Amino acid sequence: MLNFDFYNPTRIVFGEGTVAQLAQLVPPAARVLILVGGASAEKTGTLAEVRAALGARSVNVFSGIEPNPSYETLMRAVDQVRGQDIDFLLAVGGGSVIDGAKFVAAAAHYEGDPWNILETGGAKITRALPFGAVLTLPATGSEMNNGSVVTLKATQTKLPFRSVHVFPQFSVLDPTKTYTLPTKQVANGLVDAFVHITEQYLTYPVQALAQDRFAEGLLQTLVEIAPQAIAAPEDYATRSNLMWTASLALNGLIGAGVPQDWATHMIGHELTALYDIDHARTLAIVLPALLDVQRDKKRAKLLQYAQRVWGIDAGSEDERIDAALAATRHFFESLGIPTRLAAYGLGTAAVNAVVGQLGAHGMTRLGEHGDIDLAVSRAILEAAL
Amino acid sequence: MLNFDFYNPTRIVFGEGTVAQLAQLVPPAARVLILVGGASAEKTGTLAEVRAALGARSVNVFSGIEPNPSYETLMRAVDQVRGQDIDFLLAVGGGSVIDGAKFVAAAAHYEGDPWNILETGGAKITRALPFGAVLTLPATGSEMNNGSVVTLKATQTKLPFRSVHVFPQFSVLDPTKTYTLPTKQVANGLVDAFVHITEQYLTYPVQALAQDRFAEGLLQTLVEIAPQAIAAPEDYATRSNLMWTASLALNGLIGAGVPQDWATHMIGHELTALYDIDHARTLAIVLPALLDVQRDKKRAKLLQYAQRVWGIDAGSEDERIDAALAATRHFFESLGIPTRLAAYGLGTAAVNAVVGQLGAHGMTRLGEHGDIDLAVSRAILEAAL
């Protein structure tokens, strides 16, 4: 096991009916800015429920945080925070809204140009507005971690930052809030959580037995619940498991003390930026190809994955790995999510473009060994054609 | 899944050499009281290492916190805190020392008689001294939770309390600090952690898939590492897994959203109080008997346990449960820990005495259904003869 430092102070309030607990979770005298994405929080009634729970507190709303939240939009929210003397943020939505809230929280009273937060990856954040979240879309895990990704619209660049100051104080997870999600978003959430886990698990063994078992347990859970999560939107037990599993996938726990990869995400980010493919869908394209290209370096963990997650025991090592990769691909496809660039009409030109952007963004030493250079990224993208 | 509220702000600093990080973890101007048990922290050099890391800070030491820390002893530490104007506690030891530190932290500036903390189970604690821990004995999980058990020596009563104010700020987990532990304490730690997990897992199903997988993964890990943990004290990987698994066993995570039992602990506490049997050893006596007596109410989870933890697939339901209970008993016995009262020379008189104490302490509705009354406790103890 590698040395590690684990800290996660976010309080999770989980279950049907828990939105009402905002009455106690938000400070009584808070001047609240609610952050939302589009119109769905209002249409579903969640926004009204949140307002009711906040009672007599001063409440304003900032609407319009887009998927892959942009610096440009978020800076408008920062202006509103400053103008209205806001002292508490409440994100109501999915990972994009929560990621956005983290940036707004850090930028509101940042010493210097908030752009610097993204330039330095959050390293110079010394304080942030307190904030909480009401999660409506299980996928990114942002509700229980201190990471955020913001897109600079002007150049279509995705810029991650993290800071100990941007953990949500609390996140309310009510599985019934997912009932109205479009099927596509549920499918995306399943894939997003799945790949968050593999990024922290499919590397090389360091005898971190509990972390491996936890990761495998989360993967098994996603595979087990996926059909019902898609087919039965109002199955409370299934949606509960989806919601909690997605949070556990990226709250720091399964990544503590183990090597991490994240190359799939970095390559995927460029696909989103260039071609506007949903984040999760880019991961489904890149992951199987990456595992195939990197199979020798990931061999031991791939064999463990084959055996423990998919029950694949028979055949040579490479046959078992092939079977595990086929199972992974089939899992994504069964959710209606393609695993090939061709499904989006993309070919060699796209490979060249993505490799170019990776180079431009300095993404030349990716993966748990730092050995995924532009040539390997190209091989991965070609394997995903 | 049941509704839940999960919050755990303890920072874990894990790995060889991490004691030196106390230099950063403890506030620079802190007036520190180090709490230790017997002489081992000094003999092993850990105390000197801790003192070196604390540098020029004001440091005092309170020594003599016994296993099953007593109210009487801890109140002497409280006097020292008050007399020396201490503002930071540092527990160096195992669960007893950390449990003791929690009480001292809460009692130091408690409004009213500190005895009231134990009478009210911690409900009236409104603040506590900040404290950290350097763990030397993996077992209880106290290093990453907010629970504590204190014994009133005068009446040999074990009194639990908990409070959001007594989470350690940090715990330093250096697996090499376990190298000098007596074999018996390592064996006890394995059993203690194992039963912490079963108390939160072997109840009835609520479709909490990730929690079940996590619990099973921790049990599997303990079974997998146990022989090497006993045979090779300086095997870093094994001791790392033992240390982290014991923390994860009782940090609130696997118990979030599921029913919990804890009857084995409550009955075991009386055995410790009356006959001075080590805490973990009482659990090894009670658990197999309790699972046998409660098998119908726990049937679904016992079958899952048999299959997933022990790989038992063949036979009738009761045969599989019998095999799982035999495997559990064999696991404890393989560590040199008896699973029968007879091994301690105890018989029917002890059964009567324990049942009497359970009655005196109001322990008449134990277990996840609250249906373990004194008659069922008697049956469990008789099954453990």
Polypeptide structure, described:
The structure is a homodimer. Chain A is of the alpha/beta class. Chain A folds into 2 domains: about 10-175, Rossmann fold, CATH 3.40.50.1970; about 180-385, Dehydroquinate synthase-like, alpha domain (Up-down Bundle), CATH 1.20.1090. In chain A, about 50% of the residues lie in helices and about 10% in strands. Chain A has 15 helices and 9 strands. Chain A has helices spanning about 20-25, 40-45, 45-55, 70-85, 95-105, 115-120, 185-200, 210-230, 235-250, 265-275, 280-295, 300-310, 315-335, 350-360, 375-385; strands at about 5, 10-15, 30-35, 60-65, 90-95, 130-135, 145-150, 155-160, 170-175. In chain A, the strands form 2 sheets. Chain A has a 6-stranded parallel beta sheet, sandwiched between helices. In chain A, helix 7 runs parallel beside helix 9, helix 10 crosses helix 14 and helix 12 crosses helix 13 (about 315-335). The radius of gyration of chain A is 20 Å and the shape is globular. The mean pLDDT of chain A is about 95. The interface of A and B includes residues 8, 9, 10, 213 and 256 of A. Strand 2 (about 10-15) of chain A pairs antiparallel with strand 1 (about 5) of chain B, so a sheet runs across the interface.
The gross shape of chain A turns out to be globular
The main pleated sheet of chain A reads as: 6 strands, parallel
- Could you tell me the strand content of chain A as a percent range? 5-15%
Question: Which structural class should the secondary elements of chain A be placed in?
Answer: alpha/beta
Could you name the ranges of chain A where pLDDT drops below 50 across 5 or more consecutive residues?
A: none
Order of helices and strands of chain A: EEHEHHEHEHHEEEEHHHHHHHHH
The appropriate CATH architecture of the largest domain in chain A is Up-down Bundle
How are the strands ordered across the major sheet of chain A? 2-9-6-5-3-4
Number of domains of chain A: 2
For the record, give the distance between the C-alpha atoms at the N and C termini of chain A, rounded to a whole number. 36 Å
CATH superfamily of the largest domain in chain A: Dehydroquinate synthase-like - alpha domain
CATH topology value of the largest domain in chain A: Dehydroquinate synthase-like, alpha domain
Biggest interface pair, counts: A-B, 41 and 41 residues
CATH class of the largest domain in chain A: Mainly Alpha
Oligomer: homodimer
* Number of DSSP strand runs of chain A: 9
Number of helices of chain A: 15
Mean pLDDT metric of chain A:
97
